[in-house]
TrEMBL record:
Pfam families: Sulf_transp. It comes from the Bacteria. Keywords: Membrane, Transmembrane, Transmembrane helix. This is Uncharacterized protein. The chain crosses the membrane at residues 7-30, 68-85, 97-117, 129-150, 162-186, 192-212, 232-253, 273-292, 304-322, 342-362. The lineage of its organism: Bacteria, Pseudomonadati, Pseudomonadota, Betaproteobacteria, Rhodocyclales.
Amino acid sequence: MKNTLNAFFASRGGIVAVGAVIGALAAWLVSMGNPPNMGICVACFERDIAGALGLHRADVVQYLRPEIPAFVLGSLAAALVFGEFRARAGSTPLLRFFLGMFAAIGALVFLGCPWRSILRLAGGDGNAIVGIAGLATGISVGALFLKNGFTLGRARPALKPAGWLMPALMLGLLALAVAQPAFIFASSKGPGSMHAPLLISLGAGLLVGFLAQRSRFCTMGSIRDAVLLRDFHLISGVIAMAVAAFAVNWLLGQFKPGFAMQPIAHSNHLWNFLGMVLAGLSFALAGGCPGRQLILTGEGDTDAGVFVLGMLVGAAVAHNFALAAAADKLTDAVLQVGGPGFNGQVAVLVGLVFCLILGFSMREKFDA
């Protein structure tokens, strides 16, 4: 039975089925209460969790989203069932942490992670085209660094408690999401106040985590493989995700095409592009998109755990220091185009310089 399932998930049909399920679930979660075009967004949800824990005080984006711990626990369940849980650790944890921080900052300048860029497009948001172009550009640059010997070090076996630490942390977050103690912040307005019922979010997250672990679903990996290897296996799953999300949005009346005044988005094309260039480059150098990093933590990968913590802190920094973009808004019936302020623009440029220095300097052939 396990061999049959392994063969299915490794096949083209398997990755397409997984992508379709993730896309359909994400669009359905919007109808259940999650923010528009944000049925699933790892960067946005980690930002909300950071707010719920008091790491930032932007009162419109504070909610302890159960989907994030559910992704990890679903992956953990799959890894245990199929004998793939392996505690492992690599090197350069501080660099991975900063890559996570800059990935979150870039994503919050665009206002979405790679998964949300696809879901925004499937909901009709034309700005997602610019963001996806930036994402592909950043990943392509990262792929060139990889081709020329870039590395953060190879993972090695570690003692089991190290691999269990992040799943245990996520289990604790899930317990807090259920208990909702007084010290957990929760938005009464804005995106943080929009959420599906807890059990629905939990069930969807566990299923996505399980399926993504079995199929190795990864948006960053799909573009990297296409650029480096001309391998389009993973990208077929990403396309299926977009098609399924579009179909469900259309059926539920959630497809609203346009550029201006899209939900929780801005139409400043330059910074939509550059924000996702930074995010894509950070993902490529770190070895996975934010969704894939969560899945890897469920398999015992402590390097991915460091990146996830970096994203959590980066999301908090983005709101504490006014780096995140503002959405488009209407003022006296006049469109005010959103986007990042000066602080956010500087942060993106600093992040790009950091990643480029890393890409040129962390190459094995320089050590020969």
